[in-house]
Amino acid sequence: MGPVPMNEGLCAVFDSGPLIHLSEIGALSLLEIFTTKTTTDVVADEVKRYITSVDHDYMVQQVRIYAHNEISESGTLRALAKIYSLDSGEISALALCGTLKPKTEIIFFSDDSAARMVSDSLGITSVGTIGIIIKSATLGKTEKARALDLLESIPGMSTLFIKKELLKSIMDRLKKEWDLM
Question: I want to staple 108 with a disulfide (CB 3.0 to 4.6 A). Which of 76, 119, 137, 157 is the partner?
Fold first, then answer.
């Protein structure tokens, strides 16, 4: 994973995974590192089923929600979605990326590896929950020790699947980079 790009003109487009997983670990407030936050009504409806009403209300205040019928899917996206068996939320979020991309720099947030492969195939940078946590710490918006605590909490508090060895490797690298050994 490379660094998460950040600039004033960047538009963050969310699939359900990062919104759900950040909520599960009590870190939905990390969305505040992004100036422009968007998703679709399809994704928002999915997220609503998995997060608390307080977090849902917070998300609705923080994230601009586009109606999926306002967004057009490219033929390439439809073909890749079929090949990679993407669900309707992933497809709608990627279609939103395609709609917004000509106007602004886009970054797609998803924890689904197939959706991220499609995003990369479409020339759209993709990052997951772990990238959001790390970026928040590197920007100084979250204390680095807290970021490590959030990462450590993922296996026990979140439905995000990550191999323990990979998570440990990421955390060890960050501790070394951040001089927290």
Answer: 119
